[in-house]
Each structure stands twice: as C-alpha cells, then as structure tokens.
Give the backbone structure.
Amino acid sequence: MNYLNVHLPTTIKTIIIGLLLSACVIMLFWKETSEVNIAGIKIKESQKAADDILVKYQEFRNSVTSFMIFNLAVLEKDGSFDNVTGSKHISEFLYSVKNMKIEMGIRDESVERLQKVGKLKLFQSYQYELATRFNVQNIMQLGIPEFVGGSYDTSILNIDWGTLEKSEKQMPTNKRDEFQQILSHMKKDFENL
C-alpha cells in the first residue's frame, strides 16, 4: 500500500505534464498539421465535417425562412393557399411555422408580421365556415382591409365568445358536434398562435 501512496501522485503528475506538453506541441504546429489522431478519431477531419454541417444548416435555415415568408405572404394576399384551403390546414401551417421558428432560432420581423396576418386570415376562414355551415354571423372583428392593397391592423382580433356559446346551445343536435369542434379549435388557435 505504501508503494501506491508514494508513486501514484507522481505518475498522475507525469501523465498530466505529458498531455499538456503534447497539447502545446499540437497547438504550436496546428497549421502545419494535416490531422491529429487520438484514439482513432481524426480531429482535423471531424472539424471540417462539423464546419460543413454548420454551413449547410445555415443554408437550410435561410431556405426555411424564405419558404415561410413566401407562404405567409400568399396567405396574406389570397386568404388561403388555394381555393380549397380551410381553417384546419391554415392552422396546421401556422403551428408548423411557429415551431420551426423556435427550433431553428429564426428571428425575422417580416415573418413575425406575416404570422400575425396569417392568424387574422385563419380567423377570417373560421368566420366564413361559421357563416356558411351554421349561419352564425357578425361574431368577429378582424383587422383585415376591405380592399386589396390596404394595410392590416394585426392588433384587431375580437371575437364575441358569448354569442358563439349561445349559438352552440341553439344549434340543432346533428350540427352541434361539428360546431363544438370548430369552436374548440378557434379557442386553441386564439390563445396559442
């Protein structure tokens, strides 16, 4: 036991000093060294691969940002992505934009503004669905311009939840489930988008 107490600390010191000297030599000649191989891992190649991945990620991130801006702008202009897009698909798209922005750390003012416009367009779609399917009207105030080219007021999104709840109670039984489902989606989207 005495042998370990005496020689173990000097052995650890020797190993640490050896590693520090090796690290100094590597750093001194780093530009001239094509690669360093430690336990089968080639450091220079790993660094190059990591740099390549970072560049590709940045390119992908820029592409995703452009994709979001383009599709949100289409939503702003037309109110939907095509003639058959309903509130469900618009809602799913807006949630995917929200999640991608968070996951990818995208902070872009035009995306922020277009997201708010997209939310207004989503509720315009809900308003249309409620009017055509259930004859429920005049329950929302939206900051959407009345003419093409007008500006949006994204701070205006007022919903008369009381009237909607009264309409739900007066709804015929065969339409009540569908109405409740739309109302549930509306509340979720109003709070989370």
Summary: The two ends are 68 Å apart (CA to CA). The CA atoms of residues 87 and 169 lie 23 Å apart. The first strand starts at residue 37 and ends at 38.
